[in-house]
């Protein structure tokens, strides 16, 4: 079974960072993703989705110093659901992405840093997967597709984007 979420989007505001009584650090922020499609009349429409992201410990501390409103970010994590009660005693349900990796890609257009400042994790990062590693590339002369034709890009067919 797999529970994996990958988001690339822009931060709606600076991360909200809290330090808990037990010393743990947690950061919460929203990421906006956009999807474009043609409606029935052939006009292009754009739909924005907002995703709540939670980061813990070292990732939360780095998010506090590196992530700012409008920044473009790559986030990897898992989808979680929480049930809680509001002040009136009503049961509420929240869906969040608990991140285990992030990379700063750059700023939103018009920002002061449009060239993009990459975030490269240090050796003490607490994440379970590393999107910076790539599968071993097959030799261009030996890579083949199912119909038997050689293809120089056959090793790239399994990339998620």
- CATH topology of the largest domain: the name is OB fold (Dihydrolipoamide Acetyltransferase, E2P)
Number of helices: 1
Cα distance spanning the termini: 21 Å
CATH architecture call of the largest domain: Beta Barrel
- Count the domains: 2
CATH superfamily of the largest domain: Nucleic acid-binding proteins
C-alpha-based Rg, rounded:
20 Å
Provide the succession of SSEs: EEEEHEE
Broad shape: globular
**Briefly, what CATH class of the largest domain?**
Mainly Beta
- Beta-strand level of the residues, as a percent range? 35-45%
Please, what is the average pLDDT? 76
The helicity comes to: under 10%
What topology, given as strand order, has the largest sheet?
1-3-4-6-5
Strand elements, count: 6
Oligomer: single chain
Low-confidence stretches: 110-156
Overall SS class: mainly beta
């Amino acid at each position: 079974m797999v529970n994996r979420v990958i988001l690339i989007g822009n931060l709606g505001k600076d991360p909200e960072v809290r330090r808990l009584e037990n010393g743990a650090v947690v950061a919460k922020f929203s990421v906006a993703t956009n999807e474009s499609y043609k409606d029935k009349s052939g006009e292009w429409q754009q739909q924005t989705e907002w995703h709540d992201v939670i980061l813990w410990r070292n990732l939360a501390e780095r998010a506090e110093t590196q992530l700012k409103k409008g920044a473009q970010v790559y986030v990897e994590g898992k989808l979680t659901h929480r049930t809680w009660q509001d002040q009136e005693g009503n049961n509420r349900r929240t869906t969040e992405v608990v991140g285990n990796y992030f990379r700063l890609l750059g700023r939103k257009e018009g920002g002061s840093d449009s060239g993009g400042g990459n975030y490269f994790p240090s050796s003490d990062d607490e994440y379970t997967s590393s999107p910076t590693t790539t599968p071993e590339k097959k030799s261009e002369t030996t890579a083949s597709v199912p119909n038997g034709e050689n293809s120089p890009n056959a090793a790239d067919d399994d990339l998620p984007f």
